[in-house]
Amino acid sequence: MPEFNLVTVITSTAQTVTAIVMAVLLLGFLRQYKKDYLRHWTLSWTALAAYYVTTSIGIALGVGYNVASSHPVRILTAILSGVFGYTNIAWLLFGIFELLRRRPVRIRVYWRTLGAVALFGVITALLFIGPDSVSSTRYFVRVGIRSLIASIAYLASSVAFWQVRKRRRGVGFTMFSAALLLYALQQAYQVGVSVGWRFFAQSAGTIYLGYIAFLLQAVTGMSMIACLLEDEREASELATVEMEHLAYHDALTGLPNRPLFMDRLIMSVAQASRSNQKLAVFFLDLDRFKDINDSLGHSTGDGLLKAVAERIHRCIREGDTVARLGGDEFTLLIPRIDHVEDAAKIAQKIIETLKIPFSILDHELFVTTSVGISVYPDDGTDPETLVRNADTAMYRAKDQGRDNYQLYTPAMNARALERLALENMLRKALSHRELVLYYQPVADMKTKNVVGVEALIRWRHPERGLISPAHFIPVAETSGLIIPIGEWVLRTACKQIKLWHKRIDPELTVAVNLSARQFQQPNFTEQIAEVLEETGLAPRYLELEITESSAMQNAENTIYTLRELKALGVRIAMDDFGTGYSSLSYLKRFPIDTLKLDQSFVRDITTDPSDAAIATAVIAMAHSLDLRVIGEGVETEEQFAFLLKQKCDYIQGYLFSPPQAVESLEAYLLERKAAVI
Ligand code: C2E
Ligand code: MG
Ligand code: MG
Asked: Same domain for 447 and 485?
């Protein structure tokens, strides 16, 4: 069918050269941009060039030199042109797929498709080798079928480009779509020609479309380059947007970070000042988040933070900003409130919402939150002050027993200053010998004999009088002063009990309270061993009290240290039991000897049925784990009677004796001893 004349030779040469030029050009771009679709297109153009070359050689041999179609050279050219003809289409489509879908073709699909189309090309080439009389059939099978497939594929690609075009700026995609459509039409025409020739013997009157094919080829090439450039620009725009997002958002929760929060606060303050409006800043901190993180792992902690962020987000309106400052701290900006009460209502809503248990990685987590609120212009007129005061109010909420919100008041700043002053005075207290130990007896419930004492620290301040540990232990803990203070307590208590062994009772034990900070020192066990050695006290007379919540702060570490201490021979008590974030499974693993039932349960043990039930259950459970139980804060005979009935082992409380200074307790103990004798 194709005529072997000068025009054909020139156009097909031009087509071949264009294909080679395109392949080289795209190879250059591929080196530079490293896009997979460029690799496919480079291969596609290379295959097209090879297709033209092999086809032309075939035609030249057949028409020009009358070489029979069954001649091995003609069979070879037919096979090669079949393979190249089909792989050319496949590679073009792979490239289009990757450009439009933004993901690579799966490697198995890639090789299988290439293998299949190449094989198909070979098969169509090998069919109808033989007498040239069937050349119309052969032409139909070799060229017509390929054109049919190409036409359908190009049409589909054209539609795909057309749809994507709307989402992209620039002309590349539209141009590509148009070029593919024209290609599809051109190929459809080829189908028509081959069908006509094969079935109706109508070869006359067909128009030679070589020029158009050449033109289309050039347009396709340009579209490819236009698409590449537009794709690159879009990718770099996306990258910029992403980087901006990263710079102003928290990676874990996706919430705005501190810089973005402050930025919005600055704008909102300016706006509020212009319109004489109030705005509110919240500072939120999860209570005991560290316990969860330490005991259940960081992935649970992260999961919880994400879930918390989502819930807070659901409590606020559009226009409000919630940000994560880091750790478990969140801030909230409500750019317009009419009354301070509105802010309080929102805070209450958030606190309630966060109270609903979370289910994170198979753990059911109960979370409470402390919230501090400051309001513009009452509590500050610049962003820094507003945030700082909300933070101060949050600390106040923590001091008030957590799980609540506090509105900022100027007195809070006074309190913060007071804390600082206390810290400075405390630094000198130890060297000025202002710290003293009081001792409170622990008695056996059945015999009422004093079996031991608990050392409780006091601060005899020259001007302020006796300061309770509840006031200064937290300051000592945050400032790190608890380390030297704790060591002093330990040494003093051990010395004292050693003295009392001689003067009163050689079997008296002493209990010493520990802070988490002390307990987490790496050489803590050696420190205890040293003090025991120095004072000559046998380890079994020393009982160390750790609170439930400090034990849970780093549970695995706690278990390790407790084992070391047990090996030393000292006893361990779990203090304030029932108030912490405890897990019974851990309790079993902590090697403890004694449970101290917290006084908050003992207080209402005779009036509040649920406290009574808890106390009863704790005692029974402790006994089943082979632990002794001390009832704390026993003040009345009724409480005593109740605990006795529940078979509590020991008691400590005002009913028996308050904590006393050394001299008075000594007198008290000697008196009791005399009474017994
Ligand atoms: P804790 O270890 O639970 O000590 C028991 C507290 O209950 C003591 O308060 C004691 O005075 C008080 N208490 C005893 N009997 C009764 C009673 O019948 N009714 C009432 N309402 N209270 C009673 P204190 O001495 O104020 O100590 C408070 C907390 O300070 C202690 O609680 C302990 O956790 C901590 N603490 C005391 N001394 C030290 C110390 O040397 N080091 C450390 N790290 N903490 C200490
Ligand atoms: Mg205690
Ligand atoms: Mg206690």
From this structure: yes
Asked if residues 121 and 86 have their Cβ atoms less than 8 Å apart, the reply is: yes
Pocket of ligand 1 (CB under 6 A): 440, 456-457, 468-470, 473, 486, 489, 513-515, 545, 575-576, 599, 632-635, 652-654, 659
**Last residue in a domain, options 375, 409, 443:** 409
Low-confidence winner among 215-229, 421-435, 555-569 (lowest mean pLDDT): 215-229
Mind listing the pLDDT tens digit for each residue in 288-317? 898 888 888 889 999 999 999 999 999 999
229 and 354 within one domain: no
pLDDT for residue 58 is more than 90: no
pTM for the full model?
0.55
Q: What would the mean pLDDT of 464-479 be, rounded to a whole number? A: 90
- H or E element, residue 592: none
Report the separation in Å between the CA atom of 635 and the middle of ligand 1, taken as the mean of its atom positions: 14
Whose structure tokens read 């537009």?
Answer: 230
Q: Are residues 445 and 400 in the same domain?
A: no
C-alpha distances (whole Å) from 195 to each of 124, 150, 183, 203 are 16, 15, 18, 10
**Range of 530's domain?**
421-676
Q: How many domains does the chain have?
A: 3
Q: At what angle do helices 72-101 and 107-126 cross, to 10 degrees?
A: 150
Asked if residue 429 and residue 401 are part of one domain, the reply reads no
Q: Which two structure tokens, joined as six digits, stand for 99?
A: 């450009």
Instruction: Using the 3D structure, point to which of 378, 409, 440 is the last residue of a domain.
Output: 409
